[in-house]
C-alpha cells in the first residue's frame, strides 16, 4: 500500500466509526497492509509495517494508542515469521492471528463494563473527564440496569469533548451536570468517585490521558476520593515517564502542532502517576497500579 492509501484507510475508519479507538483503527490498518502486501521476503513486510506505523503516527490522531496498539499487535503475530516455508504462508498465519487478536480487543470493552459497573450503585455521584468510550458504555449499561446516579462532566478543553459526552448521557436518560475544568476542586467534595478512561497505561502503572486528568488526580488524592481508570489492555505501552517533561512531544502534540513553535502550543495530554490512581479496570481484570 502507498503511504497515501494507508493514511486514507486509517483516517476513514476513525471518521466513519466513532466508537472505534485510534489503537484499534491502527491494528485494522496493519491487517489491511498484510492483505494488500506484495512483499517477497519477511524483511520487506517488516519494512512495510514500519512505514504504515510511521504514516499513522503522523496523522492528527492520538499517538499514544497508535504506538501501544501496533506494538502489541506485532508482538502477538511475530511467531508467524518463524519456521515457515513461504512468505505467503507467513502472511496467512499473520492475518489469522491478527484477526483473532482483533476479536479479543473487540470483546475487551464488554469485560471492563461488567467489572466497573459493579462499583456504580443507586445514589452514586461520579466525576468524569473528556470522552472515554468505555466510560460512556459503562454508564449507559448501569442506567439500563435501572441504577440511579448523577454524573459531573468536565467541559474538557481545548476540544470541549465533555459537552459531547454530556449530551450522550442526557439522551440515555442519565442525570449529569457539565462543569468548568477549573471547577473540579469545587465539586470534588460532592462526588463519590472519579471514573476516567486512558489513552495509554505506562510501565509504572500511571496513565497518559486528556490534559487535566493529572489535576483531577491531585484533587481526588487530597480529598480521599477513589480514582478509577477504565482502559483496554492493548493501551499498555512501554514507556516509563517520571514527570510531565518525560512524555515525548509526539504524545503531547499533533503533527500540525509540532510544526509550529511548541512554546506557544498547549499539550493535549498529561501524565498521572500511579500514586493518584486507586484501581485500573481492564479486560485482564481489576488491577492496582
UniProtKB/TrEMBL annotation:
It comes from the Eukaryota. The keyword Protein biosynthesis applies. GO terms for cellular component: cytosol; eukaryotic translation initiation factor 2B complex. Pfam families: IF-2B (PF01008). Keywords: Cytoplasm, Initiation factor, Protein biosynthesis. The keyword Transmembrane helix does not apply. It is found in: Cytoplasm, Cytosol. One of its GO terms (molecular function) is guanyl-nucleotide exchange factor activity. Component of the translation initiation factor 2B (eIF2B) complex which is a heterodecamer of two sets of five different subunits: alpha, beta, gamma, delta and epsilon. Subunits alpha, beta and delta comprise a regulatory subcomplex and subunits epsilon and gamma comprise a catalytic subcomplex. Within the complex, the hexameric regulatory complex resides at the center, with the two heterodimeric catalytic subcomplexes bound on opposite sides. Belongs to the eIF-2B alpha/beta/delta subunits family. Acts as a component of the translation initiation factor 2B (eIF2B) complex, which catalyzes the exchange of GDP for GTP on eukaryotic initiation factor 2 (eIF2) gamma subunit. Its guanine nucleotide exchange factor activity is repressed when bound to eIF2 complex phosphorylated on the alpha subunit, thereby limiting the amount of methionyl-initiator methionine tRNA available to the ribosome and consequently global translation is repressed. PANTHER family: TRANSLATION INITIATION FACTOR EIF-2B SUBUNIT ALPHA. This is Translation initiation factor eIF2B subunit alpha.
Amino acid at each position: 500500500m502507498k503511504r497515501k492509501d494507508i493514511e486514507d484507510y486509517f483516517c476513514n475508519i476513525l471518521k466513519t466509526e466513532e466508537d472505534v479507538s485510534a489503537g484499534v483503527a491502527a491494528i485494522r490498518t496493519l491487517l489491511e497492509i498484510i492483505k494488500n502486501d506484495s512483499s517477497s521476503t519477511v524483511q520487506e513486510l517488516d519494512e512495510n509495517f514500519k512505514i504504515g506505523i510511521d504514516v499513522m503516527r503522523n496523522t492528527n490522531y492520538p499517538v499514544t494508542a497508535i504506538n501501544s496498539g501496533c506494538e502489541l499487535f506485532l508482538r502477538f503475530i511475530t511467531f508467524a515469521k518463524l519456521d515457515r516455508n513461504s512468505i505467503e504462508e507467513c502472511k496467512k498465519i499473520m492475518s489469522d492471528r491478527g484477526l483473532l487478536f482483533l476479536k479479543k480487543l473487540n470483546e475487551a470493552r464488554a469485560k471492563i463494563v461488567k467489572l466497573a459497573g459493579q462499583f456504580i450503585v443507586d445514589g452514586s455521584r461520579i466525576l468524569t473527564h473528556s470522552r472515554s468510550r468505555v466510560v460512556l458504555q459503562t454508564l449507559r449499561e448501569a442506567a439500563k440496569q435501572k441504577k440511579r446516579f448523577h454524573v459531573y462532566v468536565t467541559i474538557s478543553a481545548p476540544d470541549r469533548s465533555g459537552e459531547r459526552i454530556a449530551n450522550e448521557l442526557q439522551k440515555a436518560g442519565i442525570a449529569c451536570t457539565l462543569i468548568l475544568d477549573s471547577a473540579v476542586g469545587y465539586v470534588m467534595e460532592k462526588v463519590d468517585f472519579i471514573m476516567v478512561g486512558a489513552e495509554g497505561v505506562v510501565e509504572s502503572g500511571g496513565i497518559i490521558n486528556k490534559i487535566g486528568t493529572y489535576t483531577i488526580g491531585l484533587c481526588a488524592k487530597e480529598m480521599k476520593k477513589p480514582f478509577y481508570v477504565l482502559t483496554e489492555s492493548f493501551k499498555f505501552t512501554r514507556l516509563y515517564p517520571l514527570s510531565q517533561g518525560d512524555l515525548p512531544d509526539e504524545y503531547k502534540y499533533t503533527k500540525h502542532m509540532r510544526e509550529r513553535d511548541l512554546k506557544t502550543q498547549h499539550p493535549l495530554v498529561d501524565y498521572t502517576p500511579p500514586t493518584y490512581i486507586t484501581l485500573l479496570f481492564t479486560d485482564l481484570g481489576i488491577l492496582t497500579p
